[in-house]
Amino acid sequence: MMIPNAHPASPSPAVWRLVLLVDDSRAQRRTLAVQLMRAGYDVLEAANADEAMQICIERRPDIVISDWMMPGRSGLEFCRRFRDMQADRYGYFILLTSRNEKKDVAEGLRAGADDFLTKPVSGAELLARLSAGERILRMEDSLRLANSQLKQTLTQLRETQAAIDRDLREAQRLQQGLVRERNGRFGDCDLSLLMRPAGHIGGDLVGFFPINEHRVGLFGLDVSGHGVAAALLSARLAALLSGDKEHNIALRLNDQGQSDARSPAQVMRHLNKLMIDELRTDAYFTMVYADLDFATGTGRLVQAGHPHPVLQRPDGSLHLLGKGGMPVGLFANAEFDEVEFTLAPGDRLFISSDGLTDSENPRGETLGDEGLQAIMRTNAMLRGSALLESICWSVANFTAGKRKDDISAVLVERNDIRQD
Predict the structure, then answer these.
(1) Does domain 2-147 have CATH number 3.30.110.30?
(2) Which of 123, 172, 279, 297 qualifies as a cystine partner to 343, CB 3.0-4.6 A?
(3) What is the pLDDT of residues 8-28, one digit of tens each?
Protein backbone atom coordinates (compact mmCIF):
# COMPACT_ATOMS: atom_id res chain seq x y z
CA MET A 1 0.00 0.00 0.00
CA MET A 2 1.07 3.65 -0.53
CA ILE A 3 1.38 5.82 2.56
CA PRO A 4 0.66 9.55 2.00
CA ASN A 5 3.81 11.58 2.12
CA ALA A 6 4.46 13.59 5.25
CA HIS A 7 6.39 16.81 5.64
CA PRO A 8 10.05 15.82 5.68
CA ALA A 9 11.96 16.53 8.83
CA SER A 10 15.31 16.25 7.04
CA PRO A 11 16.56 17.30 3.61
CA SER A 12 14.86 15.48 0.74
CA PRO A 13 16.89 13.26 -1.63
CA ALA A 14 18.35 15.01 -4.67
CA VAL A 15 15.77 13.35 -6.93
CA TRP A 16 12.44 11.71 -6.28
CA ARG A 17 12.91 8.15 -4.95
CA LEU A 18 10.45 5.35 -4.39
CA VAL A 19 11.26 3.02 -1.50
CA LEU A 20 9.74 -0.44 -1.05
CA LEU A 21 9.59 -1.81 2.51
CA VAL A 22 9.26 -5.60 2.77
CA ASP A 23 8.63 -7.06 6.22
CA ASP A 24 6.04 -9.42 7.66
CA SER A 25 5.86 -7.17 10.74
CA ARG A 26 3.36 -4.36 10.12
CA ALA A 27 4.71 -2.44 13.12
CA GLN A 28 8.27 -2.62 11.80
CA ARG A 29 7.13 -1.39 8.38
CA ARG A 30 5.21 1.51 9.96
CA THR A 31 8.16 2.62 12.03
CA LEU A 32 10.50 2.67 9.05
CA ALA A 33 7.88 4.21 6.72
CA VAL A 34 7.39 7.23 8.96
CA GLN A 35 11.12 7.88 9.12
CA LEU A 36 11.46 7.55 5.35
CA MET A 37 8.57 9.87 4.57
CA ARG A 38 9.96 12.49 6.91
CA ALA A 39 13.21 12.27 4.95
CA GLY A 40 11.33 12.99 1.70
CA TYR A 41 10.89 9.49 0.24
CA ASP A 42 7.71 7.97 -1.17
CA VAL A 43 7.06 4.60 0.39
CA LEU A 44 5.38 1.35 -0.66
CA GLU A 45 4.88 -1.61 1.65
CA ALA A 46 4.74 -5.37 1.17
CA ALA A 47 4.18 -8.09 3.78
CA ASN A 48 6.06 -10.86 1.90
CA ALA A 49 8.37 -11.56 -1.03
CA ASP A 50 5.63 -12.54 -3.50
CA GLU A 51 3.70 -9.34 -2.87
CA ALA A 52 6.95 -7.38 -3.16
CA MET A 53 7.77 -8.99 -6.52
CA GLN A 54 4.42 -7.94 -7.93
CA ILE A 55 5.02 -4.36 -6.77
CA CYS A 56 8.49 -4.41 -8.34
CA ILE A 57 6.99 -5.46 -11.66
CA GLU A 58 4.36 -2.70 -11.56
CA ARG A 59 6.21 0.19 -9.91
CA ARG A 60 9.96 -0.55 -10.11
CA PRO A 61 11.18 0.99 -6.81
CA ASP A 62 14.53 2.72 -6.57
CA ILE A 63 15.36 1.37 -3.15
CA VAL A 64 14.27 -1.87 -1.49
CA ILE A 65 14.56 -2.46 2.26
CA SER A 66 13.70 -6.08 2.98
CA ASP A 67 13.75 -8.27 6.05
CA TRP A 68 15.93 -11.36 5.68
CA MET A 69 13.69 -13.75 7.60
CA MET A 70 10.10 -13.87 6.32
CA PRO A 71 7.45 -16.57 5.91
CA GLY A 72 7.58 -18.20 2.50
CA ARG A 73 10.40 -16.77 0.38
CA SER A 74 13.23 -15.30 2.40
CA GLY A 75 14.62 -11.84 1.83
CA LEU A 76 17.68 -13.52 0.31
CA GLU A 77 15.59 -15.32 -2.33
CA PHE A 78 13.66 -12.12 -3.03
CA CYS A 79 16.97 -10.25 -3.51
CA ARG A 80 18.10 -12.78 -6.12
CA ARG A 81 14.84 -12.48 -8.07
CA PHE A 82 14.95 -8.69 -7.78
CA ARG A 83 18.41 -8.65 -9.35
CA ASP A 84 17.34 -11.02 -12.16
CA MET A 85 14.55 -8.69 -13.26
CA GLN A 86 16.76 -5.59 -13.48
CA ALA A 87 18.02 -5.20 -17.03
CA ASP A 88 17.98 -1.49 -17.79
CA ARG A 89 18.24 0.20 -14.39
CA TYR A 90 19.71 -0.40 -10.96
CA GLY A 91 17.85 -0.68 -7.66
CA TYR A 92 19.59 -0.32 -4.30
CA PHE A 93 18.86 -3.31 -2.01
CA ILE A 94 19.25 -3.24 1.79
CA LEU A 95 18.75 -6.39 3.86
CA LEU A 96 17.39 -6.12 7.42
CA THR A 97 18.86 -8.83 9.60
CA SER A 98 19.81 -9.76 13.10
CA ARG A 99 22.72 -11.75 11.66
CA ASN A 100 26.16 -10.26 11.76
CA GLU A 101 28.49 -13.15 11.03
CA LYS A 102 30.87 -12.71 8.11
CA LYS A 103 29.54 -15.76 6.25
CA ASP A 104 26.01 -14.30 6.39
CA VAL A 105 27.23 -10.99 5.03
CA ALA A 106 29.10 -12.79 2.23
CA GLU A 107 25.98 -14.80 1.37
CA GLY A 108 23.90 -11.64 1.21
CA LEU A 109 26.44 -9.89 -1.05
CA ARG A 110 26.50 -12.88 -3.40
CA ALA A 111 22.71 -12.71 -3.62
CA GLY A 112 22.95 -9.09 -4.76
CA ALA A 113 22.47 -7.05 -1.60
CA ASP A 114 24.17 -3.66 -1.48
CA ASP A 115 24.04 -3.03 2.25
CA PHE A 116 22.83 -4.43 5.57
CA LEU A 117 20.99 -2.98 8.56
CA THR A 118 20.93 -4.74 11.90
CA LYS A 119 17.65 -4.83 13.80
CA PRO A 120 16.50 -2.86 15.64
CA VAL A 121 17.09 -0.11 13.09
CA SER A 122 17.88 3.40 14.29
CA GLY A 123 16.60 6.34 12.25
CA ALA A 124 20.04 7.97 12.04
CA GLU A 125 21.68 4.80 10.73
CA LEU A 126 18.86 4.23 8.26
CA LEU A 127 19.24 7.71 6.74
CA ALA A 128 23.04 7.37 6.70
CA ARG A 129 22.79 4.10 4.73
CA LEU A 130 20.27 5.66 2.36
CA SER A 131 22.61 8.60 1.85
CA ALA A 132 25.31 6.16 0.73
CA GLY A 133 22.77 4.47 -1.54
CA GLU A 134 21.80 7.84 -3.00
CA ARG A 135 25.35 8.41 -4.16
CA ILE A 136 25.36 5.09 -6.00
CA LEU A 137 21.94 5.72 -7.53
CA ARG A 138 22.96 9.20 -8.66
CA MET A 139 26.01 7.73 -10.37
CA GLU A 140 23.81 5.08 -11.95
CA ASP A 141 21.36 7.75 -13.12
CA SER A 142 24.23 9.74 -14.63
CA LEU A 143 25.61 6.68 -16.37
CA ARG A 144 22.19 5.69 -17.68
CA LEU A 145 21.64 9.21 -19.02
CA ALA A 146 25.10 9.24 -20.57
CA ASN A 147 24.48 5.83 -22.14
CA SER A 148 21.14 7.01 -23.50
CA GLN A 149 22.77 10.09 -25.01
CA LEU A 150 25.57 7.93 -26.37
CA LYS A 151 23.08 5.56 -27.99
CA GLN A 152 21.25 8.50 -29.56
CA THR A 153 24.54 9.91 -30.81
CA LEU A 154 25.59 6.53 -32.20
CA THR A 155 22.23 6.16 -33.91
CA GLN A 156 22.64 9.59 -35.48
CA LEU A 157 26.19 8.74 -36.50
CA ARG A 158 25.05 5.47 -38.07
CA GLU A 159 22.33 7.31 -39.98
CA THR A 160 24.83 9.95 -41.08
CA GLN A 161 27.36 7.29 -42.06
CA ALA A 162 24.69 5.43 -44.03
CA ALA A 163 23.87 8.65 -45.91
CA ILE A 164 27.58 9.28 -46.54
CA ASP A 165 28.01 5.70 -47.78
CA ARG A 166 25.09 6.14 -50.18
CA ASP A 167 26.62 9.38 -51.46
CA LEU A 168 30.05 7.77 -51.79
CA ARG A 169 28.61 4.81 -53.70
CA GLU A 170 26.93 7.23 -56.06
CA ALA A 171 30.18 9.21 -56.31
CA GLN A 172 31.99 5.97 -57.08
CA ARG A 173 29.62 5.26 -59.96
CA LEU A 174 30.10 8.79 -61.23
CA GLN A 175 33.88 8.57 -60.94
CA GLN A 176 34.00 5.22 -62.71
CA GLY A 177 31.89 6.88 -65.39
CA LEU A 178 34.71 9.36 -65.98
CA VAL A 179 36.51 6.52 -67.73
CA ARG A 180 33.95 6.15 -70.49
CA GLU A 181 35.80 3.47 -72.40
CA ARG A 182 37.96 0.80 -70.79
CA ASN A 183 39.20 -0.55 -74.11
CA GLY A 184 39.97 0.95 -77.49
CA ARG A 185 41.65 0.10 -80.76
CA PHE A 186 43.64 2.53 -82.86
CA GLY A 187 45.17 1.03 -85.97
CA ASP A 188 47.05 -2.08 -84.86
CA CYS A 189 47.29 -0.83 -81.24
CA ASP A 190 44.96 -2.07 -78.49
CA LEU A 191 44.42 0.09 -75.38
CA SER A 192 43.15 -1.23 -72.03
CA LEU A 193 42.48 0.76 -68.85
CA LEU A 194 42.30 -0.22 -65.18
CA MET A 195 41.06 1.93 -62.28
CA ARG A 196 40.57 0.44 -58.79
CA PRO A 197 40.10 2.92 -55.89
CA ALA A 198 41.15 1.70 -52.45
CA GLY A 199 37.93 3.10 -50.96
CA HIS A 200 34.67 4.19 -52.51
CA ILE A 201 36.43 6.90 -54.48
CA GLY A 202 40.03 7.79 -55.17
CA GLY A 203 42.42 10.18 -56.83
CA ASP A 204 43.68 8.03 -59.70
CA LEU A 205 42.58 8.66 -63.27
CA VAL A 206 43.42 7.02 -66.59
CA GLY A 207 42.18 7.66 -70.10
CA PHE A 208 42.83 8.13 -73.79
CA PHE A 209 41.47 10.30 -76.60
CA PRO A 210 42.01 10.51 -80.37
CA ILE A 211 44.11 13.41 -81.60
CA ASN A 212 43.72 12.87 -85.34
CA GLU A 213 43.42 10.01 -87.79
CA HIS A 214 46.76 8.46 -86.79
CA ARG A 215 47.55 9.74 -83.27
CA VAL A 216 46.12 9.11 -79.82
CA GLY A 217 46.77 10.79 -76.47
CA LEU A 218 46.86 8.61 -73.36
CA PHE A 219 47.48 9.39 -69.71
CA GLY A 220 47.59 8.09 -66.18
CA LEU A 221 47.63 10.38 -63.14
CA ASP A 222 47.52 10.12 -59.36
CA VAL A 223 46.31 13.00 -57.18
CA SER A 224 47.99 13.35 -53.78
CA GLY A 225 45.92 12.23 -50.81
CA HIS A 226 42.79 10.13 -50.79
CA GLY A 227 39.05 10.47 -50.50
CA VAL A 228 36.71 13.21 -51.58
CA ALA A 229 39.24 16.02 -52.11
CA ALA A 230 41.43 13.85 -54.35
CA ALA A 231 38.39 12.57 -56.24
CA LEU A 232 37.12 16.11 -56.90
CA LEU A 233 40.46 17.19 -58.33
CA SER A 234 40.68 14.07 -60.50
CA ALA A 235 37.17 14.83 -61.79
CA ARG A 236 38.30 18.35 -62.68
CA LEU A 237 41.31 16.96 -64.51
CA ALA A 238 39.10 14.45 -66.31
CA ALA A 239 37.11 17.34 -67.76
CA LEU A 240 40.33 18.96 -68.96
CA LEU A 241 41.50 15.75 -70.63
CA SER A 242 38.20 14.52 -72.03
CA GLY A 243 37.62 13.58 -75.63
CA ASP A 244 35.72 16.82 -76.21
CA LYS A 245 37.95 18.74 -78.61
CA GLU A 246 36.59 22.10 -77.48
CA HIS A 247 37.56 21.59 -73.83
CA ASN A 248 40.51 19.19 -73.94
CA ILE A 249 43.57 21.27 -73.09
CA ALA A 250 45.82 18.84 -74.96
CA LEU A 251 44.09 19.48 -78.29
CA ARG A 252 44.28 22.41 -80.68
CA LEU A 253 43.98 23.21 -84.38
CA ASN A 254 47.13 23.49 -86.50
CA ASP A 255 47.81 26.12 -89.12
CA GLN A 256 45.83 24.13 -91.69
CA GLY A 257 42.80 24.00 -89.41
CA GLN A 258 43.28 20.31 -88.73
CA SER A 259 43.04 18.66 -85.32
CA ASP A 260 46.40 18.59 -83.61
CA ALA A 261 47.76 18.44 -80.07
CA ARG A 262 50.16 20.28 -77.84
CA SER A 263 53.36 18.42 -77.13
CA PRO A 264 53.44 16.35 -73.90
CA ALA A 265 55.77 18.94 -72.31
CA GLN A 266 53.40 21.77 -73.24
CA VAL A 267 50.45 19.86 -71.75
CA MET A 268 52.33 19.40 -68.48
CA ARG A 269 53.35 23.06 -68.31
CA HIS A 270 49.77 24.09 -68.98
CA LEU A 271 48.44 21.83 -66.22
CA ASN A 272 51.15 23.03 -63.82
CA LYS A 273 50.24 26.66 -64.44
CA LEU A 274 46.56 25.88 -64.00
CA MET A 275 47.19 24.16 -60.66
CA ILE A 276 49.28 27.00 -59.26
CA ASP A 277 47.58 30.07 -60.71
CA GLU A 278 43.91 29.08 -60.89
CA LEU A 279 43.05 26.07 -58.75
CA ARG A 280 45.32 27.21 -55.90
CA THR A 281 45.10 23.99 -53.97
CA ASP A 282 47.61 22.34 -51.66
CA ALA A 283 47.19 19.14 -53.65
CA TYR A 284 49.44 18.05 -56.50
CA PHE A 285 49.47 15.08 -58.81
CA THR A 286 51.88 12.81 -60.64
CA MET A 287 51.25 11.95 -64.25
CA VAL A 288 52.44 10.30 -67.44
CA TYR A 289 51.09 11.74 -70.66
CA ALA A 290 51.98 10.20 -74.03
CA ASP A 291 51.29 11.18 -77.63
CA LEU A 292 51.39 7.99 -79.72
CA ASP A 293 51.40 7.75 -83.51
CA PHE A 294 49.76 4.35 -83.82
CA ALA A 295 50.46 4.21 -87.54
CA THR A 296 54.23 4.17 -87.01
CA GLY A 297 54.45 3.13 -83.34
CA THR A 298 56.51 6.18 -82.47
CA GLY A 299 55.61 8.41 -79.57
CA ARG A 300 56.67 11.01 -77.04
CA LEU A 301 55.85 11.07 -73.36
CA VAL A 302 56.46 13.10 -70.21
CA GLN A 303 56.91 11.49 -66.80
CA ALA A 304 55.95 13.94 -64.05
CA GLY A 305 56.73 12.20 -60.76
CA HIS A 306 54.71 9.13 -61.80
CA PRO A 307 56.25 5.62 -61.69
CA HIS A 308 58.35 4.78 -64.73
CA PRO A 309 56.41 3.57 -67.76
CA VAL A 310 57.52 0.05 -68.72
CA LEU A 311 58.19 -1.01 -72.30
CA GLN A 312 58.01 -4.79 -72.73
CA ARG A 313 59.35 -6.54 -75.80
CA PRO A 314 57.95 -9.78 -77.27
CA ASP A 315 60.83 -11.73 -75.69
CA GLY A 316 59.66 -10.55 -72.24
CA SER A 317 62.51 -8.10 -71.69
CA LEU A 318 61.56 -4.87 -69.88
CA HIS A 319 62.82 -1.31 -70.26
CA LEU A 320 61.96 1.63 -67.99
CA LEU A 321 61.19 4.94 -69.70
CA GLY A 322 61.63 8.46 -68.32
CA LYS A 323 63.79 10.06 -65.65
CA GLY A 324 61.24 10.65 -62.91
CA GLY A 325 60.46 14.32 -63.25
CA MET A 326 58.65 16.73 -60.94
CA PRO A 327 54.98 16.31 -59.92
CA VAL A 328 52.46 18.76 -61.32
CA GLY A 329 51.38 21.66 -59.10
CA LEU A 330 54.39 21.98 -56.79
CA PHE A 331 56.69 24.52 -58.47
CA ALA A 332 55.73 27.39 -60.76
CA ASN A 333 58.77 27.05 -63.04
CA ALA A 334 58.97 23.27 -63.15
CA GLU A 335 60.47 21.80 -66.32
CA PHE A 336 59.12 18.65 -67.92
CA ASP A 337 61.35 16.60 -70.22
CA GLU A 338 60.00 14.60 -73.12
CA VAL A 339 61.12 11.05 -73.89
CA GLU A 340 60.78 9.46 -77.30
CA PHE A 341 59.86 5.79 -77.63
CA THR A 342 58.90 3.31 -80.30
CA LEU A 343 56.39 0.49 -80.07
CA ALA A 344 57.47 -2.18 -82.50
CA PRO A 345 55.01 -4.93 -83.49
CA GLY A 346 54.53 -7.19 -80.45
CA ASP A 347 55.66 -4.51 -77.95
CA ARG A 348 53.54 -3.23 -75.10
CA LEU A 349 53.67 -0.05 -73.00
CA PHE A 350 52.52 -0.26 -69.38
CA ILE A 351 51.79 2.88 -67.32
CA SER A 352 50.69 2.45 -63.69
CA SER A 353 50.27 4.43 -60.48
CA ASP A 354 52.36 3.82 -57.37
CA GLY A 355 49.47 1.87 -55.88
CA LEU A 356 51.13 -1.17 -57.47
CA THR A 357 54.81 -0.60 -56.68
CA ASP A 358 54.14 0.74 -53.15
CA SER A 359 51.97 -2.24 -52.18
CA GLU A 360 53.21 -3.89 -48.98
CA ASN A 361 53.14 -7.49 -47.85
CA PRO A 362 52.34 -8.45 -44.21
CA ARG A 363 56.04 -8.06 -43.34
CA GLY A 364 56.03 -4.42 -44.50
CA GLU A 365 58.09 -5.09 -47.64
CA THR A 366 57.09 -3.14 -50.77
CA LEU A 367 56.57 -4.73 -54.15
CA GLY A 368 58.77 -2.14 -55.90
CA ASP A 369 59.73 -1.90 -59.55
CA GLU A 370 61.46 -5.28 -59.50
CA GLY A 371 58.42 -7.03 -58.07
CA LEU A 372 56.13 -5.45 -60.67
CA GLN A 373 58.50 -6.42 -63.47
CA ALA A 374 58.59 -10.00 -62.20
CA ILE A 375 54.78 -10.09 -62.31
CA MET A 376 54.81 -8.71 -65.86
CA ARG A 377 57.30 -11.37 -66.98
CA THR A 378 55.22 -14.11 -65.39
CA ASN A 379 52.07 -12.91 -67.14
CA ALA A 380 53.70 -11.97 -70.45
CA MET A 381 51.54 -14.43 -72.41
CA LEU A 382 48.32 -12.63 -71.36
CA ARG A 383 46.87 -9.63 -73.16
CA GLY A 384 44.55 -6.70 -72.57
CA SER A 385 42.16 -6.74 -69.64
CA ALA A 386 43.17 -10.30 -68.76
CA LEU A 387 46.74 -9.11 -68.18
CA LEU A 388 45.59 -6.17 -66.03
CA GLU A 389 43.34 -8.41 -63.94
CA SER A 390 46.12 -10.96 -63.47
CA ILE A 391 48.51 -8.21 -62.32
CA CYS A 392 45.89 -7.04 -59.80
CA TRP A 393 45.42 -10.61 -58.57
CA SER A 394 49.17 -11.06 -58.13
CA VAL A 395 49.44 -7.82 -56.18
CA ALA A 396 46.48 -8.81 -53.98
CA ASN A 397 48.20 -12.12 -53.28
CA PHE A 398 51.40 -10.24 -52.35
CA THR A 399 49.55 -7.94 -49.93
CA ALA A 400 47.35 -10.71 -48.49
CA GLY A 401 44.32 -8.81 -49.72
CA LYS A 402 45.06 -5.59 -47.82
CA ARG A 403 45.36 -2.64 -50.17
CA LYS A 404 45.94 0.91 -48.91
CA ASP A 405 46.17 2.89 -52.16
CA ASP A 406 44.34 3.29 -55.43
CA ILE A 407 45.51 1.24 -58.41
CA SER A 408 45.31 2.44 -62.00
CA ALA A 409 47.01 1.45 -65.22
CA VAL A 410 47.12 2.06 -68.97
CA LEU A 411 48.18 -0.77 -71.26
CA VAL A 412 49.04 -0.19 -74.93
CA GLU A 413 49.78 -3.26 -77.07
CA ARG A 414 50.90 -3.08 -80.66
CA ASN A 415 49.80 -6.19 -82.47
CA ASP A 416 52.23 -8.17 -84.56
CA ILE A 417 50.26 -8.26 -87.82
CA ARG A 418 52.50 -11.00 -89.20
CA GLN A 419 51.39 -13.32 -86.38
CA ASP A 420 47.74 -12.27 -86.67
Answers:
(1) no
(2) 297
(3) 444 455 567 899 999 998 988
